[in-house]
Design a protein that fits this description.
Elements: E1 3-13, H1 19-35, E2 40-42, H2 66-76, H3 78-92, E3 95-97, E4 101-105, E5 110-118, E6 124-128, E7 151-154, E8 157-161, H4 170-178, E9 183-188, H5 193-210, E10 213-222, E11 232-233, E12 238-240, E13 253-256, E14 263-270, H6 271-280, H7 291-294, E15 297-300, E16 303-306
Parallel strand pairs: 1-2, 1-10, 2-3, 8-9, 9-10
Antiparallel strand pairs: 1-14, 3-5, 4-5, 5-6, 7-8, 10-11, 10-12, 12-13, 15-16
Helix pairs in contact: 1-3, 4-5
Length: 308
C-alpha cells in the first residue's frame, strides 16, 4: 500500500454535558474522514479537554482548584475513551490517532499526556508525550514525561508520533526516522496564532530534515473551565511533505485548514515516491548525514557543549 490518504481534524472544543456528547462530536469528524476516503485520521492533542466540562462542578471551579477536576477526568475517562476509538476504528476500517488523553496510571501512580493509535483490527498502541510544555496550564505540574519514542507498523508503512512540543526538538523526529518512520503524526494544542505558526514551522522542518511526511492536527475553540480563566485554543491543521518538486508544492504544504474553522481536511501521500526520493532526491539529506561529527555534541545540565 504505497498511496495513503491521511486526514487531520481541526476539532473545535466546546462545553458538553455527557460522554455521549463527546462521542457524537468525535463521530462527526470520523464520518468526514471516511467520506473523504481516508485510510488514517489524526485528532489533536488535548481535544479531549471538553470532557472536563462534563463535571458540573468544573464550571464553578477557579484555576487555583483546577487540579481536582483534572484528577477526576484522568481517573474516569480512559476506558470509555479507549472503547470509543477502538470501536470506531474497527467499524470504519480506519487507523485513528486519537489525539491525546490526560490520564492516571494506576500501575505507577503517575499522570500522563499520551496519544493512542487504534488500528482496524482492534490493536491499540501508546506514545506518551516526552517533553512537558504548557500542557493545559493548570495540569502542567501533574504530567510525567514519557521516556520512549516508538515506531509502529501499519498496513501502509512505519509511523511515529510526536505530541505537540515534542516536535520542537529535532532529535525526536530523527530518532523516529532512524527507526524507519516514513510518516510522523503530530497531534498539537496551542493557545494563540504564535503557537499555530510555531507548529507549522516545526512540522515543515521535521519533514525536510527527515525526508518524511508530517501530519499536524490542532484543536481550537473555548471551554468554560476554569471558571475564572477559561481555556481558549487556536488551531490550523496541515499535512507537510519534504520541500522537493517530486514531493509537493514549494512550501511542502499538501493541505492546510482554515484558521478558526472546525473541519476535516485530507491529502494523499505517496510512500513509493517518498522511498525513491530518500534514495535519489536532491539534496540527499539522509545520505549526507555525518553521524561521526554529531557524536562530538555532548549535553550537560548547562546546555550543549562540543568536544574538542
Amino acid at each position: 500500500m504505497e498511496r495513503v490518504r491521511i486526514a487531520v481534524t481541526q476539532f473545535k472544543a466546546r462545553d458538553i454535558e455527557t460522554f455521549d456528547d463527546f462521542a457524537g462530536h468525535v463521530a462527526w469528524h470520523v464520518d468526514g474522514a471516511v467520506w473523504q476516503g481516508a485510510d488514517c485520521l489524526v485528532f489533536p492533542e488535548y481535544f479531549t479537554s471538553e470532557l472536563l466540562t462534563t463535571f458540573p462542578e468544573a464550571r464553578t471551579t477557579p484555576h487555583a482548584e483546577a487540579a481536582r477536576i483534572f484528577d477526576r477526568m484522568a481517573r474516569e475517562y480512559k476506558e470509555p475513551y479507549l472503547d470509543l476509538f477502538r470501536s470506531l476504528a474497527r467499524e470504519k476500517g480506519l487507523y485513528i490517532v486519537g489525539g491525546s488523553l490526560f490520564y492516571f496510571d494506576d500501575g505507577d501512580g503517575c499522570y500522563y499526556n499520551a496519544s493512542f493509535m487504534f488500528d482496524p483490527d482492534g490493536g491499540v498502541r501508546e506514545q506518551r508525550k516526552t517533553h512537558r510544555a504548557y500542557e493545559l496550564v493548570y495540569n502542567r505540574e501533574m504530567v510525567t514525561p514519557g521516556d520512549a519514542l516508538e515506531v509502529f507498523e501499519t498496513d501502509f508503512g512505519r509511523i511515529g508520533i510526536t505530541i505537540c512540543y515534542d516536535a520542537a526538538f529535532p532529535e525526536t523526529a530523527r530518532i523516529l526516522m532512524l527507526g524507519g518512520a516514513e510518516i510522523i503524526f503530530n497531534p498539537s494544542c496551542v493557545f494563540n496564532e504564535w503557537g499555530v505558526e510555531r507548529m507549522r514551522t516545526y512540522s515543515a522542518a521535521r519533514a525536510i530534515e527527515n525526508q518524511c511526511y508530517v501530519a499536524n492536527s490542532q484543536v481550537l475553540g473555548d471551554i468554560s473551565f476554569p471558571s475564572d480563566r477559561p481555556l481558549h485554543f487556536e488551531g490550523r491543521s496541515a499535512i507537510h511533505s519534504p520541500a522537493d518538486p517530486s514531493m509537493g508544492p514549494p512550501d511542502g504544504v499538501l493541505v492546510q485548514g482554515t484558521l478558526g474553522q472546525e473541519q476535516v481536511i485530507s491529502a494523499e501521500v505517496d510512500l513509493g515516491e517518498l522511498r525513491r526520493y530518500r534514495k535519489e532526491g536532491i539534496p540527499p539529506m539522509l545520505r549526507d548525514r555525518r553521524p561521526e561529527l554529531y557524536r562530538r555534541l555532548l549535553y550537560s545540565e548547562d546546555g550543549p557543549a562540543a568536544t574538542p
